[in-house]
Amino acid sequence: MIIRKHNLPLVQQCRALKIHRTTIYREPKALSQAELTLMKEIDSLHMENPAWGSRKVRHRLMKMGYSIGRRHCTTLRGRMGIHCIYRKPRTTIRHIGHKIYPYLLRNLAITEPNQVWAMDITYIPMAKGFLYLAGVMDIYSRKILSSVISNTLDASFCVEAYNEALRLHGAPGITNTDQGSQFTSDAFVAAVTESGAKLSMDGKGAWTDNIFIERFWRSLKYEEVYLKAYDSVADAKRSIRRYIENYNSIRPHASLGGNTPNEIHEQRTTAPLLMAS
Predict the structure, then answer these.
(1) Residue 29: which domain range?
(2) Burial class of residue 69, CB neighbours in 10 A (0-12, 13-18, 19+)
(3) What SS3 state is found at 83?
């Protein structure tokens, strides 16, 4: 976001991005191996129990022999972008100054591919450090249309993932996200609106709508990520890309009549998928 060799002075770049200039000079403190281990355990617990908040996660970690306070647990969960999933007015932390778009999926019958896309972000642990993965899923076919890995939680990699899905598959009718700051950012909103799609955001009564992509994250974690300790970003990208390709083209889904996401995405059908309120 900040380009140090740009003709525009750094102070003016910070002003345009609405960030304090001291933040661009601060060297990030490296996480200890103990914290990385805790983050891996927290991520695993979240995949098993997505409705657990910091209190229950911290209690379970203590039972497992880890020494951690509730505030530290909350801090690590926030750093990983993890928020518990349950019925509430908002499902994630949003930027207070960003516009929230209305929820458009209530009682909507999804009858064909590219009618509705869902986007989400998940945490990827490595041997040393961690990454974030943004994914775009076609709700009807469950096909992962694109994915981008980043080492930061800014909006740019979400925009990149969305634009890649557009390039490969054309524009959807609706793009559904949570209310996270990455998805309410001006850059992401512009990418969606310029594509001609409508932007929908989960809100009250819509807590289950990302369940399909959440299920995919769970499969990815337990069948791929947790079984490996990626040594580099390139290693993580290569291995996760291979898993997604197999998921789309080889893995049959009971909910898809034993077909693969690729097979369903390439055909049209009149059997609707109803998004309940």
Answers:
(1) 10-80
(2) exposed
(3) coil
Q: How far apart are CA 104 and CA 101, in angstroms?
A: 9
DSSP letter string over 96-132? TTSPPPPP--TTEEE-STTSEEEEEEEEEE-SSSEEE
Q: How many domains does the chain have?
A: 2
CA angle 244, 179, 139 (to 5 degrees): 35
| C-alpha to C-alpha distance for 210 and 203, rounded to whole angstroms | 11
Element holding 277 (H helix, E strand)? none
Q: Between 97 and 149, where is the model more confident?
A: 149
User: Which two tokens mark 140?
Assistant: 């009807």
CATH number at residue 265: 3.30.420.10
Other C-beta atoms closer than 10 Å to the C-beta of 146 total 21
Taking only the tens place, the pLDDT of each residue in 124-160 is 998 888 899 999 999 999 999 999 999 988 899 999 9
Q: How confident is the model over 169-207, as pLDDT tens digits? A: 999 999 999 888 899 999 999 999 999 999 998 765 454
Length of the chain: 277
* C-alpha distances in Å from residue 122, one per residue of 79, 80, 152, 196, 203: 11, 8, 12, 26, 19
Q: Is residue 31 part of a domain?
A: yes
